[in-house]
């Protein structure tokens, strides 16, 4: 296989005189990966339903799917309010609620998984409602994203680390003090 440019690939079979010129990208298309993943999830859901229905019966399996999907929003609401309370507490302390935002995102994803009928999705969604499991998922994805960001090339852009630490100048003034700042030219 000989690459002519980034858009055209010249492919020849080893024992053939036939030469095929194809236009396209040589990398896999993410849409295909998503489609295959979706098909695998649907196949897993069908297999799980058949296995459960074989064990407890078709009507009981349908009833169980309905009950879990109907009770899912109540579980998500309860866990979501807990995450919201933690977020508000961190904001009140003046901290950035980064972990709580990721917790909220995982609760949302888990809630969607619970509300869509299926035993595999319900199990994964209910697992995401457990705090330690969410912390493990956030930690795993956090480390993965940190490695990716560390390897990213910025090209002509410059990365600036802009962390904020309150200094004594940022503290509120005590009563009776003036609000005038003292610059280098105002020093005695």
Helix proportion range: 55-70%
Biggest sheet character: 3 strands, antiparallel
Count of DSSP strands: 3
Mean pLDDT rating: 76
Share in β-strands: 5-15%
Q: Write down the overall geometry.
A: flat
Q: Rg to the nearest angstrom?
A: 28 Å
Structural class by secondary-structure content: mainly alpha
First-to-last CA distance: 77 Å
Q: Taking strands numbered 1, 2, ... along the chain, how are they ordered across the largest sheet? A: 1-2-3
Q: Work out the oligomeric state of the chains in this entry.
A: single chain
Number of helices: 5
Low-confidence stretches: 1-25
Reading the helices and strands in chain order gives EEEHHHHH
Description:
The structure is a single chain. The protein is mainly alpha-helical. The chain has a domain at 28-152. The chain has helices at 30-56, 58-92, 98-115, 119-128, 131-151, and strands at residues 2-3, 8-12, 19-23. The chain is flat and about 70 Å long.
Tags for this entry?
5 helices; three-stranded antiparallel β-sheet; mainly alpha; 188 residues
Write the layout of secondary structure elements.
Blueprint: E1 2-3, E2 8-12, E3 19-23, H1 30-56, H2 58-92, H3 98-115, H4 119-128, H5 131-151
Antiparallel strand pairs: 1-2, 2-3
Compact overview of the structure:
The protein has five helices and three strands.
């Amino acid at each position: 296989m000989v690459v002519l440019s980034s858009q055209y690939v010249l492919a020849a079979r080893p024992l053939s005189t036939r030469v095929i010129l194809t236009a396209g990208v040589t990398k896999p298309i993410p849409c295909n990966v998503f489609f295959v993943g979706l098909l695998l999830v649907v196949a897993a859901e069908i297999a799980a339903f058949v296995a459960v229905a074989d064990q407890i019966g078709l009507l009981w399996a349908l009833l169980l799917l309905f009950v879990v999907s109907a009770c899912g929003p109540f579980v998500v609401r309860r866990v979501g309010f807990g995450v919201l309370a933690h977020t508000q507490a961190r904001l009140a302390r003046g901290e950035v609620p980064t972990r709580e935002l990721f917790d909220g995102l995982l609760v949302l994803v888990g809630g969607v998984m619970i509300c869509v009928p299926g035993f595999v999705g319900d199990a994964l969604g209910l697992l995401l409602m457990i705090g330690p499991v969410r912390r493990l998922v956030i930690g795993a994805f956090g480390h993965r994203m940190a490695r990716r960001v560390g390897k990213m090339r910025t090209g002509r852009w410059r990365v600036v680390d802009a962390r904020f630490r309150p200094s004594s100048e940022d503290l509120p003034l005590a009563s009776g003090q003036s609000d005038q700042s003292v610059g280098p030219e105002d020093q005695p």
